[in-house]
Write a structure and sequence with these properties.
- The chain folds into two domains: 130 residues, Lipocalin, CATH 2.40.128.20; 114 residues, Lipocalin (Beta Barrel).
- Helices cover 4% and strands 54% of the residues.
- β19 and β20 form a beta hairpin.
- The relative contact order is 0.21.
Length: 259
């Protein structure tokens, strides 16, 4: 859930030769194709006794809190709360600076084998994001406390990607709703994150493959946390972002059709 605070919006600045070749095919409006988009997720929930649980959402650490509905210290300066709402339902919320970022309703199936997650997020521009996940139990555990892996992901909200040439041989990749902006510059290696909400210790590098493909490498405190393969189909009608997150065996796959 923590890592699903999606990282799609990109601002990409190319070196002159690459940008001149790339601007024309990349420029324009793109719409997410939910039928071809896959956002596999995994989470681990461990009972620590009583109402205390350890949550690992794959966001770089474990958060241990009491499941009583109160706001408690979470990762990256956030507050996390989990409230039981009946025997098989939990309400999960995450806040930053007093504002709710995420509200998720987890419903455990009667046989205890699956969780349906009605995931709702507020983007930085205030727009609502709606996704539904179905998780399957992959290990031992009791009730909601177990290892879970998604078997179905449904993006309910429309997502539009606008690609616009920038002065100085660059391209702007911006999504609506806005998640956050990232600046990626060719010709520079491991430079600090830029944009309205840069993360301290985060750096970016870009490697050009050809005029239709490039690879973004993201690091945190010097360690690779993700790579993103971004490319166009040969007919220039499909843009694909394959996001490989360190420690996960399946990538997030965002597929956009030219709008």
């Amino acid at each position: 859930m923590f890592k699903r605070m999606l990282e799609i919006a990109l601002v990409v600045c190319f070196s002159a030769g690459v940008a001149q070749a790339a601007e024309a095919p990349f420029a324009g409006k793109w719409k997410l194709d939910p039928s071809r988009t896959r956002l596999p997720d995994a989470m681990k929930i461990e009972s620590k006794g009583g109402n205390t649980y350890a949550f690992d959402f794959g966001g770089g650490g474990v958060e241990t809190i009491v499941v009583d509905g109160t706001d408690q210290k979470g990762l990256d300066g956030t507050l996390l709360s989990v409230k039981p709402d009946g025997p098989n339902t939990w309400i999960v919320e995450r806040k930053r600076d007093g504002k709710r970022q995420i509200r998720a309703t987890w419903k455990l199936s009667k046989d205890g084998r699956t969780i349906t997650d009605y995931f709702r997020q507020v983007a930085p521009d205030g727009a609502p994001i709606s996704m539904d996940y179905v998780y399957q139990r992959t290990g031992k555990g009791s009730g909601i406390a177990a290892d879970w892996r998604s078997i179905k992901e449904t993006m309910n909200s429309p997502l539009v990607l606008q690609v616009t040439p920038l002065p100085g041989d660059g391209l702007s990749f911006a999504t609506s709703p806005a998640f956050f902006a990232r600046t990626v510059r060719f010709g520079r290696t491991d430079y600090p994150d830029e944009g309205p909400t840069p993360r301290k210790g985060a750096t970016t590098s870009v490697r050009t493959v050809d005029a239709r493909t490039f690879v973004v490498t993201r690091k945190y405190d010097g360690k690779v946390v993700a790579t993103e393969d971004i490319g166009l189909s040969s007919d220039l009608k499909t843009l694909t972002i394959a996001q490989h997150i360190t420690g996960r065996d399946k990538p997030n796959l965002y597929v956009f059709a030219r709008g």
